[in-house]
Amino acid sequence: MQPVRLKLTFELMRAYEMLDSVRLTEPKMATDEELELVHDPGYIAKVKELSSAAPAGAGLGWGLGTGDNPVFLDMHEAAATIVGGALMAAGMIMEGELDHAFHMGGGLHHALRARARVFASITIRP
Fold this sequence. Notes:
The structure is a single chain. This protein is mostly helical. The chain has one domain (24-117). 37% of the residues lie in helices and 0% in strands. The radius of gyration is 16 Å and the shape is globular.
């Protein structure tokens, strides 16, 4: 999860004028109550703890601090904002405010209820 990917994607879409006819909405940060619909409160607390200057190797027991799930400053805020954006997009569609929504940050999530999970690798042999 490299947050800079979202920034670069957004800049590329803007450069190709793909955003000229869309309504952009600033996402809100999901609340702990919203996050707890899916995640264990202890896992949320650990992500918050590691979001501010975690020592090397911290979080490995939670599936964090790996190549797929790096620990970085403000990690909780970034993840909660991605979730909040998805909730906003779904809510706007459900309320009839929009027919379609594109949440650029969506789809980056790959955690279990109480720990992070890596992407699976599949090797195909000829």
